[in-house]
Amino acid sequence: MANFSIIVPIKEVPDIEKVNFDREKGRIDRSSATSEPNPFDLNALEEAVKIKEEIGGNITVISMGPPQAEDTLRDAIARGGDKAILLTDKGFAGSDTWATSYTLATAIKKLGHYDLIICGEKTVDGDTGQVGPEIAEVLDIPHVSYVNKTIERGKDSIIVQTEVWGRLYKKELKFPGLITVTKDLNEPRLPTLTNKLKAKSAEIERWGLDDLLDTGDEKHFGIKGSPTSVVNIEVPKEKGRKSKIFEGKDAAKKMVEQLRKDLGGI
User: Fold this and answer.
1) Which residue has the higher pLDDT, 223 or 244?
2) Beta strand 27-29 with 20-22: parallel, antiparallel or unpaired?
3) Domains of the chain, earliest start first
4) Strands 83-87 and 204-207
């Protein structure tokens, strides 16, 4: 029997609290802030490490991005990943969520055996929550989204709690399968100095478009394989608080009238 295999897709994202938005071009100016691992993906990696500690196995982390995304993969190795693969190629540029999912799924097919794929709920720079479920659809495997608690970990299945539309559900997912996790699932541990030093010399495999053509179709990669595109991004301006003071004997009456006016004449 093959060793239990967990795959964790990880994305490098800009520091969302510091990044600027290019209003004219309708996109994020990624050069305006430092990059870091997507926070939700760190929750996914932490769950993978917990599974490895409990039942054994190995963890492969995969990222699609520019060459500098190696830093994020090294961070993932320092946090418990065993193997890292960077999908980097100009042919992947312009990918929407579907083309991104297809590329990641194609790389997972190339890896061969896997039991469980764990994705973060969403990325802080896209906020769609689509990539995880779309990977599962391309691979034709079952998936459970918005997992906020692990009830039981096993080698054949995992039992989890998921929250959807304000309700909690208990689900059993048989392997191979995929889950997406929320930040409520766990608290990612920090990498130790020893592991950080080991990760610096770790081998990061690089796969380009040509490496994926034996498991994927070229027309589905990059901008050619993206059925959607972002036309514009609108960033709402922050509104400051407004205050009004009501005085006199009829202050309460005036306040009620103002509240009714603000709430649309209720």
Assistant:
1) 223
2) antiparallel
3) 5-225 (3.40.50.620)
4) parallel
